[in-house]
Design a protein that fits this description.
With 252 residues, the chain is of the alpha/beta class. Helix content is 42%, strand content 15%. Helix 1 crosses helix 8 (224-231). The longest helix has 29 residues, at 106-134.
């Protein structure tokens, strides 16, 4: 019984932004647990494809501009044309813009909100309709430490990730009784492209590490187990949760 609770054999997972970083690590972890992978994004994720195929699972790539929220229904149709059904949706794609709040531009605000929040919601809506019709599905949103905290110099990112936490709870309230689980992972400080500027800043890097009880930046593979749990039958009674994977950051 225990191993099957974490098995994803026979499942198909759609993951946005799976070409690098956390999305790539999640795609590989879900494939290792048995899921076929459908990656959606602007670029062809060749490295992720090779890793997934190496697990023996199927890999499909669908190119789409996730900044265009109006196209999410077409993205869902394209994805479903490639496979019979989508059991797991991981809204991972995200961008960040850094500037003092007094200097933040409308363009940087809109660009981040469109990718991180608007497209994530409308893709979930489009895929969720099919999940609700089947009476089964797992939605995993990628939140952030800034779903709980304010941060500095990332106004639109903080707003978008705070909203992702709220949407996770709202959708769980509406869909839990219909067989669809909606939860989120809140990664802490991970060594990815989004945090390169922080890691390159000697003082910021030192200050961040001083607060992390684990004493290190997270590696993308650290998030894989949480994703498998929320995608698998083991989490069937988990709804509206925001699971921190943060090396203890929030406990400090």
């Amino acid at each position: 019984m225990f191993p099957s609770a974490f098995s994803l054999l026979g499942r198909t997972a759609l993951i946005t932004g799976a070409n690098t970083g956390l999305g790539q690590a999640i795609a590989i972890a879900l494939a290792e647990a048995g899921a076929d992978i459908l990656a959606v994004g602007r670029t062809d994720p060749t490295e992720t494809m090779a890793a997934v195929l190496n697990t023996g699972r199927r890999f499909i790539s669908v190119q789409a501009d996730l900044a265009n929220a109006d196209s999410m229904s077409m993205v869902a149709d394209s994805a479903l044309a490639e496979c019979a059904h989508i059991d797991i949706l991981v809204n991972n794609a995200g961008i960040i813009r850094r500037s003092d709040a007094v200097d933040f531009t409308a363009a940087d605000w809109d660009e981040v909100m469109d990718v991180n929040l608007k497209s994530a919601f409308f893709l979930t809506q489009a895929i969720g309709k099919r999940m609700l019709a089947r009476g089964y599905g797992k939605v995993i949103n990628i939140a952030s430490m800034l779903s709980f905290q304010g941060g500095i110099r990332v106004a639109s990112y903080t707003a978008s990730k705070s909203a992702i936490a709220g949407l996770t709870r709202l959708l769980a309230n509406e869909w839990a009784c219909k067989g669809v689980n909606v939860n989120a992972i809140a990664p802490g400080y991970f060594a990815t492209n989004n945090t390169q500027s922080l890691r390159s800043d000697e003082k910021r890097n030192r200050d961040i590490l001083a607060r992390i009880p684990a004493g290190r930046w997270g590696h993308p593979t650290d998030v894989g187990g949480a994703a498998v749990f929320l995608a698998a039958p083991a989490s069937d009674y988990v709804h509206g949760a925001i699971l921190p994977v943060d090396g203890g950051w929030l406990a400090r």
